[in-house]
Amino acid sequence: MAGLQGVVKKAITLPCTVRPLSSGVPSAPFLNLAARAPAGHDDHHGHSAHGPRADVPPKWIGGVQKSSSHLLSKTYITPSTIAYRGSRTIHTSTPAKYETPKVPDFSDYKAQSESTNRALSYMMIGTMGVLSASVAKSTITEFLGTLAASADVLALAKVELELAAIPEGKNVVIKWRGKPVFIRHRTQDEIQEARAVDWKKLRDPQPDEDRVKKPEWLVMLGVCTHLGCVPIGEAGDFGGWFCPCHGSHYDISGRARKGPAPLNLEVPPHDFNDAEGKIVIG
């Protein structure tokens, strides 16, 4: 027992050389599979090449010293732990989910024939055309509506007057669109006088029939065609209207007969409402 006092015995804790990766593939960074068996070593593992083996510790890491009668020393060297920090790579034995994804098959959703697809295309084009035309029409209508006259202007666009309020042989002056309008209820003598004139020799040739819709009702704008003055009714050399500003004379049909006036008095658009006994101007 005294001879065993010089024996040095040390415990060695080796790190695990095999660990699984996150993909489940085993990794052994410290295992050298390319090591060769030493020369002259018995090839009982089936290795045919020669060289050092990774599973046989080399002589320099420790050893055993003993005499002819007893053990002198036994030495072990504990290697330092080396952390593996290499980059991880995908191994060829990874599961199929890590392989290149396959393109899905959409053959079940394809049209069975070209005619079916063409009909659908025509229907979509026609529908979009109808919708576009409807939107364009609505837009143009609203735009033109903003350019139309307002309600107060339209209210003045037409004026109604009861004919029974005008006695025969009298004039009535009303306002329409900011202008005076002469309405005369002519007698039968005035009608015959207006139509007896040779209208072809007048300054502005126009027969009386073209200036009235009903012979007894004469409707004219009360604006002189010379410089826009307002003539006086039942005056002048022809028993019609007279402009005192520049001396223009008009007959009982409102035609220019004398003075600087170049044209006859204008006849505005008008119509008669016989059911209600009214005249509508405008």
UniProtKB/TrEMBL annotation:
Instruction: Drop me one GO molecular function for this one.
Output: quinol-cytochrome-c reductase activity
Q: Segment Disordered: which positions?
A: 37-58
Query: Main location per UniProt?
Result: membrane
Enumerate the PANTHER family for this protein: CYTOCHROME B-C1 COMPLEX SUBUNIT RIESKE, MITOCHONDRIAL (PTHR10134)
What does this protein need as cofactor? [2Fe-2S] cluster
Keywords on record: 2Fe-2S, Disulfide bond, Iron, Iron-sulfur, Membrane, Metal-binding, Transmembrane, Transmembrane helix
Record localization: Membrane
Could you tell me what this protein is called? Cytochrome b-c1 complex subunit Rieske, mitochondrial
* Cellular component per GO, a single term: membrane
Q: Which family does it belong to?
A: Belongs to the Rieske iron-sulfur protein family.
Q: How does it sit in the membrane?
A: Single-pass membrane protein
Annotated Rieske domain residues = 191-279
